[in-house]
Amino acid sequence: MYKENALYEMLDDCTYIGTSKDRIxxxxxxxxxxxxxxxxxxxxxxxxLNVFSVASMLSSAGHQVSILLHDNNVLSYKTSTRAVFPSxxxxxxxxxxxxxxxxxxxxxxxGANMSNISIIKSSDTWYYLAKNKFDLLNFYYQLGNISLxxxxxxxxxxxTFYHVIQRPLDMYAINNFSKIFGSKFKDxxxxxxxxxxxxxxxxxxxxxxxxxxxxxxLKIPVVLRLKDIPMFMYDKKMPSxxxxxxxxxxxxxxxxxxxxDKAKFVNNFILPFEKFLKYQNIIRxxxxxxxxxxxxxxxxxxxxxxxxxxxxxxxxxxxSENREEISIKTSExxxxxxxxITHKAILKILPLCDGANKVSDIxxxxxxxIANVSAYINKMRAAGxxxxxxxxxxxxxSIVINSDVFS
Length: 407
Prior knowledge:
Helix content is 48%, strand content 10%. The chain is α/β, with parallel strands linked by helices. It folds into two domains: 1-319, Rossmann fold (3-Layer(aba) Sandwich); 326-406, Arc Repressor Mutant, subunit A, CATH 1.10.10. Helix 11 runs antiparallel to helix 13.
């Protein structure tokens, strides 16, 4: 059905799907499927661009894609402060929302069909487990029984110690997707992961499924594993959009990249990614990397040129465009939203929050005191109702209330 679709040709070229038993090509899929991508996004890197370009291809081809943002992991990273905390972020609580907005902008640049993409937060899984205490107790009881010994035959469990909590949590989320996220999508059949993380999903899933009665009904998804791309991480730093040229070069130089990893970088990232960018009319020519002679300097040049392209593109994208909905999952948030949207003065200024008016403009047009208007807008910003920039804009078109709020 899709064999002549250029998107699928490109996707087959840079990825494969695999479980412990089989491999198939995406072009062989006859039905539209639901893919889930568990991902820790801190800032723009080549790894993130690879993941988001795949999400864009899938969504453009009519598949449903849910990006499961590991927001509960983000602030544990040294690099998550981004050296300069974003001026548009007012609090730690807003940080994950900021990341969602940036991911949305990147997906739009990459040509994603946003009606087929949902960006959800891993922290919502913890909330669901906390609300369902029996599940939470059993989850931890059984998880604690999984062997973490270095001598364990389940080396994938031990070698990915950082993911010992996150992988089972992802597996739980995948198996209870509609219950947790109230998604309009059908339950995901595929999970997209990077490199050897595919084995950790399969191994941890099998350990949970086969050894412990609580997980007997666990469904292990088909794993779509992206081709191996070197992370180029040194001292917890990966070449990113936030770095200037000298920082990029210093990280690359410190890594002492061998020829095999250079070849992987070209064949598994540069060639398919630039093919994708040309197909989407994002670039018309290569970014200038001399693939025949890769040096630390030419790799740094490539990263710098690529990130500057996305700097310019991100400036033209409205990162805070209206969200499809605000999802209310707690009684506290419900009361916060209710107190705002039933306030007469706020209802008067809300229509003026259209992205074209500053606070002073809104005060003038509404014939209200600027100090009061500023206080009302800050209250709406804190609740996530309007954007945090100088010209506030409504961030949603509908409100969805989870039934657990009233339980």
